[in-house]
Amino acid sequence: MDSRVAKLCMEKGLKMTEPRRVIARVLSDSDDHPDVEALHGRVRDLDPSISIATVYRTMKLFEETNIVTKRDFGDGRARYEEILGDEDHHHHLIDVTTGQVLEFYNEELEALKIKIANELGFKLVDHHLELFGVPLKRGSKPKAD
Amino acid sequence: MDSRVAKLCMEKGLKMTEPRRVIARVLSDSDDHPDVEALHGRVRDLDPSISIATVYRTMKLFEETNIVTKRDFGDGRARYEEILGDEDHHHHLIDVTTGQVLEFYNEELEALKIKIANELGFKLVDHHLELFGVPLKRGSKPKAD
DNA sequence: TTATCTGCAAAGAATTTGCGGGAGG
DNA sequence: CCTCCCGCAAATTCTTTGCAGATAA
Fold first, then answer.
1. Are B78 and B104 members of one domain?
2. For residue B121, what is the nearest residue in chain A, using CA coordinates?
3. What is the model's pLDDT at position A143?
4. What is the pTM of this model?
5. Would you say residue A118 lies in a domain?
6. Shortest CA distance from B103: residue in chain A
7. What is the pLDDT of residues A33-89, one digit of tens each?
8. pLDDT, tens digit, for every residue of B56-95?
9. Which nucleotides of strand C are protein-proximal, with an atom < 7 A from a CB?
10. What is the CATH number of the domain that holds B14?
């Protein structure tokens, strides 16, 4: 069975080679935000002959084809995640004490960003939001607004 | 007259060398988001003996001292901008047709982000938002894509 | 003075690319 | 087949660092 990403590739008319199929599978099976090295590691588990250069080339291709998006969480490497659909435009909260990344979605935020872009005279085509936070101590209640 | 950034350096007890003074001046005089190469170019106009290694080292120092913040707009290099104050926590809208960067500030957005972080169990310590948009062409016909 | 800083060049880290053989449609 | 793709290794690009001399406090 082809992975969701593999199907997308075919829809978009990309030549489906073995390395691309494997990379597509890895992406579909990943729910975190792997960098290229991590992707290559997972790809190698399925097919050790695939080189990291191909992972780079394929991620660039997938990015240009709107299958994945590149992210940057402040460490100097590119991270990737599958694009699932417009309704799923989530964002990230990075726990600065651990580096762990939480995803969230907020309706109010989506509306607000479109409004802000419009007020500035633009149609919003993409947006990134990253929050950086430290965990609230358990027992101390979150500050009410 | 010392630049605003130079004054900050002295307040924070940093040794004020000539290269740092020049770099501080360049930062204070810049209202865009220069990368290190651009900074070095501007620095060289004032003092050609200053090396790019020093610019890198100084930007790292200024970043650690909370005088500037590093930004990433998707091209692979670090960009810097002066931190002006808490009330000024603005964000960026990038015009994808030109690459031009607009800054904006929105009170509602500030409140919302703090609320979201709290609801996730975190105290917000920093945040980045980038909007990517295309200009609304009022009055002219829509461009076919 | 004396710890810190700087320029230079070399080292690193992440990513890209030229090349010749290989595989998809 | 013919074009595009792949692995390999070398090349690029951005950034960091070791060293020995220079400099601020």
1. no
2. A136
3. 37
4. 0.82
5. yes
6. A120
7. 999 999 999 999 999 999 999 999 999 999 999 999 998 887 889 999 998 876 678
8. 999 999 999 999 999 887 778 899 999 887 666 889 998 8
9. 4-10, 13-18, 23-25
10. 1.10.10.10
